[in-house]
Structures are given as structure tokens and as C-alpha cells.
Amino acid sequence: MKFGLFSILPRPEWRTTEDVYEAEIDLLVSADRWGLDSVWLAEHHFSDFGICPSPPVLAAAIAARTRRLRVGLAVSLLPFHDPVKVAEELAVLDIVSGGRLNVGIGRGGWSKEFETFGAKHEESRARVDEGLELLRRCWTEESFTFNGQFRSVSELTVYPKPIQQPYPPLYMATNSPDSTAVAAREGLIPMTSAFPSWNELRRRYEQYVPAAVAAGRSEADARARLQEAWVVRCVYVAETEAEARSDPERYLLSYYHELESRHVAHPGGFEINLGQPYEHYLNDGSSIFGTPSQVLERVKELREITGHRNLMCFMSFGGFEPAKVRRSLELFATEVAPKLA
Questions:
Q1: Phi and psi torsions of 245, nearest 5°
Q2: Calpha distance 101→92 (Å, rounded)
Q3: Residue 126 backbone zone (phi > 0: left; psi -120 to 50: alpha; other: beta)
Q4: Residue 15 CB: number of other CB atoms within 10 A?
Q5: What is the pLDDT of residues 277-327, one digit of tens each?
Q6: Phi and psi for 18 in degrees, rounded to 5?
Q7: Which end of the chain is more exposed for a tag (fewer CB within 10 A), N or C?
């Protein structure tokens, strides 16, 4: 299995912006030392639910302080950006990181974001489809003309090109069965949030290969991409079961409360686990809390039920106390991950 850290940079009222950035960057950079595969940065706007509106900038800072660690966007919200500009910026990021960039794309969910950026949520799927085509053409073609619904270019050549050929690995946020089918059709690697249950994950990914084949893609290629899929889960590892149960409660409930309070433009799977008591999240599979041995068994169970081989650990949910998050990562990296390699 491969393991990564997922980050949205939440800023609870008891922490400053500077403190959040300093602690989170230190945590993410340390993933390189602990042998994790990657870090993944979420894009959010206009809310202290997540205070990283520009993941590529933060990714560049992390890449500059690490040697091996891959840096991923989870995800870039294409409906809010000019795809040509995104292609330029991400090509630079791939170069300065030495070819360590992973690119996840998504539609966005908060109504305030759509309203402020002048996008309509009912057009978000079309904007992602068009933006994806533009990204690929910017990265692979020397000169091209494109006439789309939202963007047109004439005899355009984009410089520089990414190091990774033909371009960095492309992922899609698949928080609904519909988006899973789109990812399969477009040849994108699925990336799923913490909300769908393990059985729902299995059902969705059972649809991936048939959908890809129906779109004219090879079964072997689709199966290879599915093996690279990532899933997010809230993870906390502690020395004792009592600590693993009590330490995260305040922060996990804060995270879900903040998520529930945001108006989601097209909820998809987001409504699945919201508004539940703490006990629910301990048992529904969205969270993996426990001692090292307990977490090891839960991750094995996740792998067995869903077939997932790649886990994004969301450890700093709700503005979790940084010292405890660092210790949780250390325990995971030294006592859990090596037994699942």
C-alpha cells in the first residue's frame, strides 16, 4: 500500500493563520522523512473551514523542502479558473518539484465559491470536461486552436511543458457514482473523500472498469488506473485505546459541524455522514482511530473490503492539536505503514 497525508488547513477560532500554516507545513514536510508517498492539498475559498485557496503555491513550498515526497492537488477546482493559466502554473510546479506533481481536479461544492467566481454549479461538469481537454492539449501540443463553450484559443503554444510525460498523473474527485463514471470515461484515476462507506466505495469502483471499457478504453488500462485510486479517511493513532477515542472527539465533531454548515451546491455523496453523533463516525468507516495494532487491522479491513491500495490520512481535521497530530503520524509511519508495504 501507499500512504499520503491529506490537508485542508482548517483554522479554528483558537488558532491563528500563521500558527496553522507553520504547523501544517512542518507536518507535511515531515511526511518525506517518515517515508510516506505523498501529500495532498485541498482548495477552498472564503472560509476558515480550509484556508488554502492556492494549493500550487503551498505545494511549491513543500516541494522545495523535500526530496522524494510527491505533492498532489486534491483537488484543483477547474470551474473557478482559466484552464490555460492552470496548465502554465502546474507545468512550472512539475518542473520545480522535479516531476513530483500529482494533479487532482474537481467541480467544487460551496455556493459562495460559485457565486463569487461567476460560475454556475449546473455548468460545473461541462467546465471540468472542457478544462480537462484544454489542460491536456496545453501540455502535449505545440500549437492548437480550440473553440469551446467557455474558452477559445487560436494557434496557441503553451510553455513550459511538464517534466512528466505526457503530463502529470491526473485524478478526479469521485464523490458520487456519476463522477466515478466520468473519471472512467476520461481515463482519470479516482480519488474519493472520507464520506462514502466502505461498501459504497466497493460498489462505485466495481462500476469503473465497465464504464471505461464502454467508453472505448482498454480493460487493462482501466484496471491499472483503478489500482492507483486514493481514498481519504480521518486517521488518528495513539498509544492507548482511551486516548485514541477521546482525543479526536472535539476536532472531528468540529470538522463535521463546519462541513454541515456550508451550503453545498451539488451535494452528491456529501450528505451521507453529516449531522451524526461521534459514535457514528467511530463506526461507519469514515474514521480510523486506535492504537497502532487497531489501526493496522482497520486499514487491512479497508483494503480487503474496498480493494483500495492507497490511503490518504487526514490527521489535522478540525484544527487538531499539532503535537498530537505529529505523534499520530510518527506512530502510523513507524508501527502501521511498514506492515502494509
A1: -85, -45
A2: 10
A3: alpha
A4: 15
A5: 999 999 888 999 999 999 999 999 999 999 989 999 999 999 999 999 999
A6: -60, -40
A7: C
